[in-house]
Amino acid sequence: MIFDPFKASASDKTLSMPPSQADFLRDSAFRYLAYFGALSIVLLVAYIVFELGVQALPAIQTHGFGFITGTTWNASEEEFGVLPEIWGTLYSSLIALIIGGTFGVGIAIFLTQGFVHAKMEVTFRTIIELLAAIPSVVYGLWGIYVLIPMLVPVAQWLHETLGWFPLFSTELGGPGLAPAALVLAIMVLPTVAAISTDAFRRIPYKVKEAAYGMGATKWEVILKVMLPTASSGILAGLVLGFGRALGETMALAMLIGNVNNISLSLFDPANTLASLLASTFPEAGQIEIQALMYAALVLLAITLVVNLLGLAVQQYTMRKFEGKK
Q1: Transmembrane segments in this chain: where (predicted)?
Q2: Residue 116 CB: number of other CB atoms within 10 A?
Q3: In DSSP terms, which residues pair with 45 in a beta bridge?
């Protein structure tokens, strides 16, 4: 059949005709708008870092690298150190990522690999996405009045039976790392689950069919084909979840105990950089504000390093499992 442009409909002509000058103008305008948006984000981040750096400069000059290695925060004596906060930030976020990431990827497998009917899948996805809409302070209140009382007998039993193990060397008498990390895991879970689900759905169905055609079982297909193929997307979700955990403030400020302490025990109180900023800033003097700005720069640096490492790992997995350069 020969295409006749004179007899074609308006939609056919639009598809078959070369782009007009107006089309070129629209494309150019959209391209420059995208460039402007990307540049605006970079400039905004640079401006935030610059403003924090200017206000933190006196503290940087006074305390230097000892600010990062110090373990005492005493405003009355102008002695500031954030090593316990760095430890608490990384430790609680890592525990939350292990728990929330494991359940998040498991939920993604459950929703995308034929374990549940399509209508039930929509219901489960909606419930999981609603978890991301709950305010942080509500999670904190739930942790104080529900989670901590539930954990106290469990912590006591673990301490009595496995007290020789560093993770359970103390008892939980109130706020501590365990309730903070568990609540943080619930807050991280929707991000990991949503992005992992999308990563599984982007895999062409013929990949799964080919694996079944070679005689693989369902779990062999999931573990040896689907997981490696979706690994870059799953890692992206884990990196975003870890970033969310690093910057979480209110729930941790209410549950972690806000004590400058470095300990492996899950039941000891601790502190994080974000909760330090939230709890100290309202009553801080000028010198302490400068130290808090220094702490904010440290938190930004940690987040940047985590994202760069996550991007490097993601690129490696894409080259290894997906053949992308």
Answers
A1: 32-50, 90-116, 137-158, 178-200, 221-242, 291-313
A2: 14
A3: none
Q: Write out the DSSP string of 279-293.
A: HHGGG--HHHHHHHH
Residue 80 structure tokens: 């500031």
DSSP string for residues in 56-101: HHHHHHHHTTHHHH---EETTTTEE--HHHHHHHHHHHHHHHHHHH
Q: What's the angle, vertex CA 11, arms to CA 7 and CA 15, rounded to 5?
A: 95
DSSP bridge partners of 80: 73
- Cβ atoms of 196 and 234 within 8 Å: the answer is yes
Residues in CB range of 147: below 8 A, 6 or more apart: 179, 182, 183, 255
C-beta of residue 84 within 8 angstroms of C-beta of residue 260: yes
Q: What pLDDT digit, counting tens, does each position of 185-231 carry?
A: 999 999 999 889 888 888 888 888 888 888 888 888 888 888 888 88
Distance of CA 72 to the CA centre of its chain: 28
* Prediction pTM value: 0.84
Question: What's 214's DSSP letter?
Answer: T
pLDDT in tens, 302-319: 988 888 888 887 777 777
Angle at the Cα of 147 (from 174 to 243), degrees rounded to 5? 95
Sequence-distant (6+) residues with CB within 8 A of 226 are 109, 113, 200, 203, 207, 208
- Token pair recorded at residue 227: 């997981």
Region of 81 on the Ramachandran plot (φ > 0 left; ψ -120 to 50 alpha; else beta): beta
Helix, strand, coil % over all residues of the chain, rounded to 5: 75, 0, 25
Tokens standing for 261?
A: 């302490």
- Residue 314, SS3 per DSSP: helix
Measured CA to CA, the distance from residue 145 to residue 244 in angstroms comes to 24
Which position has the token pair 């350069």? Answer: 325
